Task: inverse folding
């Protein structure tokens, strides 16, 4: 059975691994697993393009029985060269064939937009078709949005993530700013609001001056 992020007891500890080679990636994953990590996010950007094959990916995504997810972000300059979002989607699907439990689909995939959330109808339909393809292979979908330099209210974030859910994803994610005590308090309120209103697991993270504190406290709020 394919490992699953959705079957993990929340909150859980997921480690982000960004090593230069598949071999170093495996070593780090096993080390982090020994230290207590329960899931892994594997950044593929540092790898040489020739390593993005099913054979190599299978070695990485089968090195542990824990759920694993690739990062193929546009901002990470995947495979040392800018690639199209269509090509990015094919890399995601290849990682699923290689054993990945989930994929992180950018909220503005196929149409770059502010806050990494596209409103382009054609792009959203393409996202939905990609999500269907990922689900058909037995994997899960996280849709992510990064607006680290912006402060958003709880209601704005709820609307934002609800839109992602409407596209068919399993886990919506957003990263925003918490640079003051007032923004931190609103972030805490937001996490509670999302827990009450969303019917799916979610990821709500903050960057900025109070980002680290928010990330420590958020799991206890939902």
Result:
């Amino acid at each position: 059975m394919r490992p699953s992020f959705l079957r993990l007891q929340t909150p859980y500890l997921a480690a982000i691994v960004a090593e230069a080679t598949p071999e170093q990636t495996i070593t780090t994953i096993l080390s982090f697993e020994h230290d207590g990590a329960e899931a892994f996010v594997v950044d593929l950007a540092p790898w040489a393009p020739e390593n993005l094959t099913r054979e190599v990916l299978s070695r990485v995504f089968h090195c542990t029985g824990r759920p694993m997810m690739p990062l193929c972000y546009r901002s990470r300059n995947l495979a040392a060269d800018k690639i199209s979002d269509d090509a990015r989607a094919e890399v995601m699907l290849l990682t699923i064939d290689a054993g990945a439990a989930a994929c992180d689909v950018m909220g503005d995939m196929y149409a770059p937009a502010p806050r990494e959330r596209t409103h382009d109808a054609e792009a959203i339909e393409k996202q939905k078709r990609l999500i269907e393809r990922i689900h058909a292979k037995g994997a899960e979908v996280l849709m992510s949005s990064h607006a680290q330099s912006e402060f958003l209210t709880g209601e704005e974030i709820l609307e934002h993530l609800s839109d992602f859910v409407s596209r068919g994803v399993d886990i919506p994610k957003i990263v925003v700013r918490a640079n003051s005590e007032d923004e931190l308090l609103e972030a805490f309120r937001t996490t509670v609001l999302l827990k009450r209103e969303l019917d799916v697991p979610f990821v709500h993270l903050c960057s900025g001056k109070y980002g680290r504190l928010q990330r420590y406290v958020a799991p206890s709020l939902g």
In short: The chain has a mean pLDDT of 95.
